[in-house]
Amino acid sequence: MNHAEVGQSILRLLPVGGLMAVVFGLMLDVNRDAIGRVNGNIEACQDEVNPNIVLSREQLAVFLTVSERDSKARVQEILQVPYCNLATLEVRAGVAAERAVYPLAFDPKTWLIVLYENDEYAGYQFRILDR
User: Fold this and answer.
1) pLDDT tens digits, 54-72
2) How far apart are CA 94 and CA 70, in angstroms?
3) Per-residue model confidence as pLDDT tens digits over 12-43
4) 13 lies in which domain range?
5) How far is it, in rounded angstroms, from Cα 21 to Cα 83?
């Protein structure tokens, strides 16, 4: 293999390596200030709890590529059925926001909470339950 072939191989792997670094960085929880923490009180699910539902690393990696304001249907296609739904809240004036919960398979004490406004994906947060 000559130098040109080695360079081309490295360039092909660069996007994959970058994505892996981003996902790994998110899992390290470098910026704990931006992450929700529950202090002993678990917010109650508002409907049926699906106890066997967990979110895989692969599903999380694909979900993190979705842009805000993409369709709710696209996000649900990736994440599937939620563990449960939390009470709606008003993040922006006059707009009710739904929240769906997905425990992480590799860390069940951490929840991914996905926010929807109308039929649009509006954001997410991680909530770390008391250990």
Assistant:
1) 999 999 999 999 999 999 9
2) 20
3) 665 655 555 554 555 544 333 333 333 444 67
4) 1-30
5) 28
Q: Which residue shows structure tokens 């996007």?
A: 15
**Judgement on whether residues 74 and 11 belong to the same structural domain of the protein:** no
Indicate whether 42 and 21 sit together in one domain: no
Residue 73 and residue 122 in one domain: yes
Query: Measuring CA to CA, which residue among 131, 98, 89, 102 is closest to residue 117?
Result: 98
In the block, residue with structure tokens 């002993």: 40
Strands (E), 1-131: 36-37, 84-92, 95-104, 107-117, 120-128
Q: What is the DSSP letter of 32?
A: G
**DSSP code at position 17:** H
Residues 63 and 96 in one domain: yes
Write the DSSP symbol of residue 122.
E
Q: Write out the two tokens for 14.
A: 């660069």
The sheet that has 107-117: what strands, in order across it? 36-37, 120-128, 107-117, 95-104, 84-92
Output the CA torsion sign for 33, 39, 41, 42.
positive
Taking the C-alpha atoms of residue 131 and residue 127, their distance in angstroms, rounded to an integer, is 12
